[in-house]
Structure formats: structure tokens, C-alpha cells
Design the sequence.
């Protein structure tokens, strides 16, 4: 008996349904896992706050204006997302390969992009608990003020920034897909040096125009710069005029998504040719 | 002793292979120094942006020294406990190490050598960077460099034993608890006053800070390298007092580490956790 043609080539509606289900499934695993281990919740909220506090106290020790402490708290919240992009997005396919799950993803009839989008949405939900803890701690313990009247535009810019940052994470995940132990070191090198280049703890313009503009290829740099400008105005020592930042973030998101899709396909094919998609313990 | 030296040498060699043989030495060096240099520059710009380049060179020197030597705490402390998770769950080799004719504790100490070595490279490069690029004076005419080296070594020994305590804990907890180990390093970074004077801490936090050996270690190194103290809270203590506190706390850490590690090892074996996989 000939197979039902509908089974071989699902229609657009069915494809969309399957991909949306994949996004939801991948995101929900991440959200549930993040609350499964109490140590994880504490490790993801309390301790990063303590590390950030050290940088708040540097400014306090230097008797800096109070808005600088706000810069650090905002930077600390953004670091939570950046670290999730690195460890939860970029490195994720590497982990999946190490655990023998990557091949399961590859044989499913859904787009790899759906899985990545699910990981991103789950990661954002998971990381938001950490970012909220950092912001709340900053407000309550260090009396950092964020004018409530400017919260909405800041939130809008923040959402655009996350879109661009997680799209960049998708590109990195395809790069990390085939790597071995260099994943650890590359992920690590994308932390402190990026904290520097993106000005997580100080206005990025302090590094000079050339370095700051070079750092702006990372969406978190411009996003953080813009959010600080929204909250603190000229005191934020912004790099680019605020109205320029949202269109740049949207353009970066579209560009990164396009590159991610191409890269993912290319790296997957490369992995198949080199037989590296199932290598474990590298 | 000969057997112990063999184990330390073999596990140090293994640690080096695991950490470093994926890249050319130059590339590995770049990776090793990226973090300390980046953190140094972050602090440099933080100080510069609020001071507008004036009158804070001395303050930055204290921050720089504290931050640079704290690299040992971050690298070694996290490195040892991470070895347990990596061997147990990623490489799945901890069970083989366990059934080999060697004890786990010296094996982990040997594995830590690579971390000590990479941290040392990072510290040395950061010090050179501070001296040559940022123009900081490291050391004063009266600095006794042999004593500085001895203080650094004593501090590393303390960090190693604290790392063993965390490694013991890692034997009985899931890998997510790595966050706690990393968090502990962040907690020390905050409470030891690595990058700010202790005196800006609230009174209760300062009391905790004064119970931590690394607070005294960083103060001693600052005094040796700048000729003056940084923390007003420790001004009443002379250098000899600081040496005594660091020495005594290292001995206490060593005893605690032995007891705690062997207890955790016994629990891990009793509960069948030596080959536990918890990475979901």
C-alpha cells in the first residue's frame, strides 16, 4: 500500500504546528529544569548578585555619583542574559552532543531554528528570575533608582536587545556545535573580555570612540548604553544618540537570524561529512 | 612520599593534557591571560571614568593588586571542584580513578597544579601589564621579593585546601551545584575587599570579612608591594600578625579539608554517587 502523501509532506499548517510545539517543548524543559534544583536557583540569583555588589562597592569606595552604581546594577542584570547566551545558547548543542541527544534533534521533522528559538525563550524566562533578583537587590540594598516613568521605553529597548543577543547566540551555537574542549575556553573568553568591551560596569564611551564602536557589534553593548541613556540621560555618557539604537538592534536581529540559519545548515553538513556530530567526551 | 610524588606528577600531567592540549601553547596562553587582563582593564576604566584621570593612581594600585592576586582564588578554587564534575559526568572517568591504586585527594591536588600554573601566568602577565602599560609601580624600594613569593605560595596552599573542601562537597551534590562553588568565589571576591576598601562594607559584612583568611592575605600582599596598608580595619595589625593569621588559617583549612573530604568520599561511596550523572 502506498503511503499517505500527507504523511510524507505535511502541509504548511502542520509544519507550523510541529515547529511551534517544538519551540514550546524546548522552552518548557528549560524553565522546568531551572526550578528543579534549589541550589541552581540560589546559584543563579544570590551569588551573581554578590559578585556584582563588589563592583558597586568599587564606585562607593571611590565616592562616585550614585548613578554609577545604577550602571553596575543594570550591567549585572544584562550580564545574566549574556552569560545565558554563552552557556545556555552557544554551548547548548555542544552539551547535547556530549549527552548523545544532538542526533535526536537532527532526526526530528522540525527546523533546528525552532529548537534554538525554544532554547532562547526558555533561557530568557529562566534568566529573568536572576536579572529581577539583581535589580531588586540593587534597588533595596544599594538604593539605586530607576525612574519608573522611563521604564516602558527602557523595557522596549531591552526586548530589542535580547532579540539581537539571542540571535547572536544562535550563530555561536552552530559554531560551537563541532568544537571540543575549546568550547569551554571560548565560552570563558566571551565573558570578562566581553564585560569589558560592552561596558557592563562603566559607560562604554569611556574606552574611546574606536573601541566603543567596535564593541557595538555586540547587541548588549548598544542595548545597555541605550537603557542607561533612557534612565539617566546625559549622565549615562551615551555612545550613540538614543534614537539610533532601536533601528540598529532590529537590523542586527534580522542580520544575525539570517546568518544563524545559514551557519546552522553549513555546520550541520560539515559535521555530517566529518563524522563529528556524534563524537562524545572530546 | 615517593608514591605521593608519583601520583601528584601523573595527575598534574593529566590535568595539563585535559586543560591545555586542545590548542597550540600560544593560543592557550592568550586564553589564560584574557580574563585577568580584561578584569584589570574593567577596573581601570571604572576608576578612570569617575576620577577623570586625576589623583586616583594610588587607589587603583590597591585595587589592581587585590584583583590580580585574587585570580588564584577564582581559578584554583573553582578548578578543583570542577575537576570532580568533569571526571564524574563528562569523561566518566572518576570511577576508574577511584578503583585505581591511588587516593582521590592527592589526585585532585595534582590536577590543581595546572590551574595554579595558568593562574600564575595570568598573575604575572597582569603585573607586567600594570607595570609596563598602565605605568603602575609594583613594589617599593624596601620590598622583599622572596617574602612576597612566600606569601603568595602560602595563600595558594590555603586556596588549595579550601578547593579540596569544595571538591569533597562536589562528590555528594549534583553538577548544578557548581553554581554554588562559583558563587562562593564571588562571595569571597566581595567580602575579602579584593577591589575596594573593606571599610565601605556594612559592619556585619566587615565582621565576616575579618573571619576570612584571604582578607589578610590580600592586605599583606598590598603592604609588601606598596609599602602601605589599604584597609583601615586592619591598620592595628602589623605584618607579623597578618603572617600568623594566614599561617594558622592555612593549618586549620588543611585539617578541615582532610576531615571533610574523607567524610564526603565515604558518603559518596555509600550512596553510589561515584559515577553519578546529573547533567539534565
Sequence:
Amino acid at each position: 500500500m502506498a503511503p499517505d502523501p500527507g504523511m510524507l509532506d505535511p502541509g504548511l499548517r502542520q509544519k507550523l504546528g510541529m515547529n511551534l510545539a517544538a519551540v514550546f517543548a524546548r522552552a518548557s524543559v528549560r524553565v522546568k529544569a531551572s526550578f528543579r534544583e534549589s541550589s541552581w536557583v540560589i546559584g543563579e540569583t544570590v551569588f551573581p548578585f554578590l559578585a556584582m555588589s563588589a563592583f558597586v562597592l568599587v564606585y562607593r569606595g571611590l565616592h562616585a555619583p550614585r548613578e554609577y552604581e545604577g550602571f553596575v546594577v543594570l550591567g549585572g542584570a544584562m550580564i545574566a542574559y549574556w552569560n545565558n547566551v554563552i552557556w545556555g545558547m552557544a554551548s547548548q548543542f555542544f552539551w547535547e552532543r556530549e549527552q548523545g541527544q544532538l542526533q535526536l534533534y537532527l532526526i526530528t521533522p522540525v527546523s533546528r531554528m525552532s529548537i534554538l528559538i525554544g532554547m532562547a525563550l526558555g533561557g530568557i524566562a529562566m534568566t529573568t528570575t536572576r536579572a529581577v533578583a539583581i535589580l531588586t537587590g540593587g534597588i533595596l540594598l544599594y538604593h539605586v533608582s530607576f525612574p519608573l516613568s522611563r521604564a516602558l521605553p527602557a523595557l522596549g529597548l531591552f526586548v530589542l536587545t535580547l532579540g539581537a543577543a539571542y540571535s547572536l547566540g544562535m550563530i555561536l551555537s552552530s559554531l560551537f556545535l563541532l568544537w571540543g574542549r575549546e568550547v569551554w575556553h571560548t565560552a570563558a573568553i566571551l565573558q570578562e573580555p566581553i564585560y569589558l568591551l560592552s561596558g557592563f560596569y562603566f559607560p562604554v564611551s569611556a574606552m574611546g570612540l574606536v573601541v566603543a564602536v567596535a564593541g557595538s557589534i555586540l547587541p548588549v553593548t548598544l542595548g545597555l548604553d541605550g537603557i542607561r541613556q533612557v534612565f539617566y540621560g546625559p549622565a549615562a555618557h551615551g555612545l550613540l544618540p538614543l534614537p539610533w539604537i532601536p533601528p540598529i538592534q532590529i537590523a542586527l536581529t534580522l542580520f544575525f537570524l539570517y546568518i544563524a540559519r545559514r551557519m546552522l545548515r553549513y555546520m550541520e553538513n560539515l559535521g555530517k561529512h566529518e563524522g563529528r556530530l556524534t563524537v562524545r567526551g572530546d | 612520599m615517593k608514591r605521593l610524588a608519583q601520583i601528584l606528577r601523573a595527575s598534574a600531567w593529566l590535568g595539563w593534557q585535559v586543560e591545555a592540549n586542545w590548542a597550540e601553547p600560544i593560543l592557550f596562553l592568550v586564553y589564560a591571560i584574557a580574563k585577568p587582563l580584561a578584569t584589570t582593564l574593567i577596573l581601570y576604566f571604572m576608576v578612570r571614568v569617575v576620577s577623570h584621570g586625576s589623583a586616583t593612581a594610588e587607589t587603583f594600585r590597591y585595587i589592581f593588586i587585590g584583583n590580580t592576586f585574587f585570580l588564584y582564588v577564582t581559578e584554583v578554587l573553582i578548578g578543583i571542584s570542577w575537576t570532580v564534575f568533569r571526571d564524574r559526568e563528562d569523561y566518566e572517568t572518576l570511577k576508574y580513578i577511584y578503583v585505581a591504586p591511588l587516593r582521590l585527594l592527592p589526585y585532585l591536588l595534582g590536577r590543581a597544579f595546572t590551574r595554579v600554573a595558568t593562574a600564575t601566568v595570568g598573575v604575572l602577565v597582569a603585573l607586567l601589564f600594570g607595570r609596563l602599560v598602565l605605568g603602575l609601580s609594583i613594589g617599593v624600594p624596601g620590598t622583599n621579593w622572596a617574602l612576597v613569593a612566600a606569601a603568595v605560595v602560602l595563600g595558594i596552599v590555603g586556596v588549595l585546601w579550601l578547593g579540596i573542601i569544595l571538591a569533597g562537597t562536589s562528590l555528594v551534590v549534583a553538577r548544578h551545584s557548581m553554581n554554588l562553588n562559583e558563587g562562593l568565589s564571588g562571595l569571597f571576591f566581595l567580602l575579602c575587599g579584593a577591589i575596594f576598601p573593606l571599610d565601605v562594607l556594612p559592619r556585619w559584612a566587615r565582621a565576616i570579612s575579618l573571619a576570612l583568611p584571604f582578607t589578610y592575605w590580600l592586605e599583606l600582599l598590598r603592604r609588601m608591594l606598596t609599602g602601605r596598608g589599604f584597609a583601615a580595619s586592619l591598620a592595628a595589625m602589623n605584618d607579623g600578625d597578618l603572617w600568623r593569621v594566614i599561617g594558622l588559617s592555612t593549618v586549620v583549612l588543611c585539617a578541615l579539608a582532610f576531615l571533610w573530604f574523607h567524610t564526603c568520599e565515604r558518603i559518596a561511596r555509600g550512596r553510589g554517587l561515584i559515577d553519578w550523572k546529573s547533567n539534565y
About this structure: The CA atoms of residues 148 and 261 of chain B lie 30 Å apart. Chain B touches chain A through 48 residues (CB under 8 Å). The first helix of chain B runs from residue 2 to 20.
